[in-house]
Amino acid sequence: MLSGSKNSFKLKQDIHEPQLCIPEVHEMNKKARQLSLKCLSGEYIHEEAIHVRKSVTCRDEVVYINGTLYCTNLRTSFIPHQAPEIENYQCQILNTNNDVALPCIERIVAVSSVAKPKVLTAHSTLKFIPEGLLIYCKDFRIMRFHFNDSGLEPQALRITMAIVQAHQDFGRMAHYENAALQDVQNGQVRGKMQKEFPTIFFNSSLDWESELRRTGASNWRVSPINERFDMSTSLPKYLTVPSRLLDTELKRTFAHFSEGRIPRLCWHHPCGSDLLRVAGFQPDTDPEKEDVRTVEVMMLANHSQCVIVDTMDNMPNLLDLQLSYLKLRALCVNDIYLTVSDEKWFSTLESTRWLDYVRSCLKKASEVSSLLVDRCRSVVLQESDDRDLNCLVASLVQVMLDPHSRTLSGFQSLVQKEWVAAGHPFQQRINLLKEADKEESPVFLLFLDCMWQLLQQFPTAFEFTEAYLIALHDSTYVPFFCTFLFNNQWEQGRRNQHKSLSQTYTPVNGWRDFITEQHLLKGMYPTAIQEESTYPPSIWEWSLHYSHQQQAQFKNPVYVSCSNHAVLNNYTILHTTDKLDPTPSANVSVYLLSKGLLTLQTQFLPWKNSSALRKGTRRAQSSESLVEPERLTSSKSGRTHLRSFKQQLLPLLMGPWIHLWHRCYLRCSSYNQVGICAPTVSSLAEELKLLQEKMSHEFTTRNHTQTGCSSRKQRVPSCHPTEKSGRTCQK
């Protein structure tokens, strides 16, 4: 062991540019397979270290697992020497417990007994041989590795600096989209989970039309006006618009909204209300009178009442949300060598304001859902760019009101519709490549936290579990799937065209696939499976990165479909018909929900040509009255008219009801570090089922034994089945 400064030295690694073209991929993958590492397409090994111990803390006990640590151009992988007993291990490409994608790494710390822990960067210099390695992950994990104690271990230094350099180079690599789960052996695995839980991707007009039929929105149609993205690159190909409007009328309205994001339908309520979303107006434009009339028709959506909801009101902006998230992660994934008192810890948690932001989102969604069920009207969610908070609120509202969105298939389709197809900028908000630090903000992760809060308050209303939400949370930092790689469908389509990095262009031969030519030269012929799997798979193909044992934790065994159970959470809502009472002389009424107040608008469009729908304003009831703080029950006298909504979820928002998602954020603590397969309701239900089966089998066996004994004595036994354990049969 080193001691003092006599044996210390400095070692600085050489910085080199990453190689984009790897001609010997086949040989490297062959070597990796021999080393028990299953390489992805385009993946190769930088460095390896054998006889590495990974420490896992479960409760108050530290367990060490022996294995080999690998550093590749895509991830850091630990392969235990003792193979896991998983039936479908060959089908699982990524090991979620032992693999860390390079973009998921937050910081790397080298540990030694002769020096303080040192945070490493690409230009770091080390004065000691690391005895241990700590990898802090963005998904709140901490990977702890310990090297051999037999003196100066060169492999410890090599693997440490290789991980640091690979992490630095990954942000500059442009081929990460092609380095996905595309192996030929994965062809039969892909789509297996999709058959069990089919997901609508909303890439075709048929997908949008099926959604209209499911919700019964008969006054709406699917328009292909943006099929070539010439109207708006951030909108999906197909838009849901009122049936009475022609595409020629719609074309003139795109220029009057930010990024061309016109009003369009999100969801249709069974009572007739419609939920829409729209970007901010462009007040500098000068639309014609007919264009303004078209916009008014789109906003009213065939209703006499319209409520415009400012989703940015009383909600965190992107910067505040990012700062809060960074504080939360620093608190939950703190230095393992530091101890903080409980009082200081909870005080710091409150100062992050993360739980306040979760409460604000749930409150906003509850207000909107109450507006939709209260009366047949149009509710329009408006945000400046319509790509962040509108996605969050629109999704939460549908989860609260639509039981289909609480199923596995429905929830995954909801994410595809309101986030992926709607153009949420995942590249900037998640910022895997560290190219947009100023635009990074965990809007989607905030949505998952809100979903967990609903799951805690309504445990039987969801088909999926907390383990599923954690898996989805962690998958946002894995760049090997196409779901969260792009900002919109337009970018996704461009990357999927004939301009991939494996192709080269010449004026004579045009586009030529370099990797395919290399395979042909080596006698390797592309198969049909290769051609089908040339594009990164969807995140919903869980079999590629989660085992059957882990996927079994995704489904909630206590889930009860809405048609089979009573009112969820015993929640009923007071039916008041005078909240938005239009003047008889007016045909339509437009209100603005902002700062907790409903205000009647005289002119809700910023242009001079817009018609004045109503004159005068009044102070409406506070928004808190839209969601009653107490659960109302029907009066015995029957004078109070109450309606019960079997399909609506309204969460309690007071302080004690909003909790910290401890299993996600505190997973590095000794109590919660039990992995994705932690004991849950699913495992307890499975164990209970096995016990019931054993008891039933035991009961049947004893019953047959007693029947046989009785028949031999030519008499009928008088023992009751419940008393069988106390009776004996004699010859």
From TrEMBL:
CDD domains according to UniProt: PTP-MTMR11
GO biological process annotation, one example: phosphatidylinositol dephosphorylation
Basic and acidic residues bias spans: 721-731
InterPro entries xrefs: Myotubularin, Myotubularin-like_Pase_dom, PH-like_dom_sf, Prot-tyrosine_phosphatase-like
Pfam families assigned: Myotub-related
Gene3D superfamilies (UniProt xref): Pleckstrin-homology domain (PH domain)/Phosphotyrosine-binding domain (PTB)
Compositional bias (Polar residues): 702-711
GO CC annotations, alphabetized: cytoplasm; membrane
Top-rank taxon, per record: Eukaryota
Sequence ranges assigned to domain Myotubularin phosphatase in this UniProt record: 202-665
Disordered: region residues: 615-638, 701-731
Family: Belongs to the protein-tyrosine phosphatase family. Non-receptor class myotubularin subfamily.
Protein name: Myotubularin-related protein 11 isoform X1
Taxonomic path: Eukaryota, Metazoa, Chordata, Craniata, Vertebrata
